């Protein structure tokens, strides 16, 4: 399993994928909002979304797991 983690603390503004979706390397999967800026979080590898660990409105810290790929 591969994990996509938050690169900084912020609020999950938008979830761009659903469980079962196939993602490619470089594809944005989550958009965080921090200090009125939108920060896209991209998949570093291709895979299938096995689990979403967050939902819109959740607060996350740097390093928190957002998405699990298989």
Structural summary, described in words:
There is one protein chain. The chain has 70 residues and is an all-beta fold. It has one domain: RNA polymerase II/Efflux pump adaptor protein, barrel-sandwich hybrid domain (OB fold (Dihydrolipoamide Acetyltransferase, E2P)), CATH 2.40.50. 0% of the residues lie in helices and 54% in strands. The chain has no helices and 8 strands. The chain has strands at residues 2-5, 10-15, 22-23, 28-34, 37-42, 47-52, 59-60, 65-69. The strands form 2 sheets. A 4-stranded antiparallel beta sheet has the order 1-8-6-3, with no helix packed on it. The protein has a 4-stranded antiparallel beta sheet with strand order 5-4-2-7, with no helix packed on it. β4 (28-34) and β5 (37-42) form a beta hairpin. The mean pLDDT is 96.
| CATH topology type | OB fold (Dihydrolipoamide Acetyltransferase, E2P)
Segments where pLDDT lies below 50 for 5+ residues?
Answer: none
| Beta-strand residue percentage | over 45%
Helix content: under 10%
Looking at how many chains there are and whether they match, the oligomeric state comes to: single chain
Principal-axis shape = globular
Which CATH architecture would you pick? Answer: Beta Barrel
Output the CATH homologous superfamily.
RNA polymerase II/Efflux pump adaptor protein, barrel-sandwich hybrid domain
* SSE topology string: EEEEEEEE
For the record, the CATH class is Mainly Beta
How would you characterize the largest beta sheet? 4 strands, antiparallel
The overall pLDDT, averaged over residues, is 96
Give the number of domains.
1
Number of strands: 8
EC number: 6.4.1.2
Keywords: Biotin, Ligase
Protein name: Acetyl-CoA carboxylase biotin carboxyl carrier protein subunit
GO molecular function, one term: acetyl-CoA carboxylase activity
């Amino acid at each position: 399993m591969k994990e996509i983690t938050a690169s900084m603390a912020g609020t999950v503004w938008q979830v761009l994928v659903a469980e079962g979706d196939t993602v490619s390397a470089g594809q944005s999967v989550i958009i965080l909002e921090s200090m009125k800026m939108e920060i896209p979080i991209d998949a570093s590898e291709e895979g299938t979304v096995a689990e979403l660990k967050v939902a819109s409105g959740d607060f996350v810290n740097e390093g928190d797991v957002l998405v699990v790929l298989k």
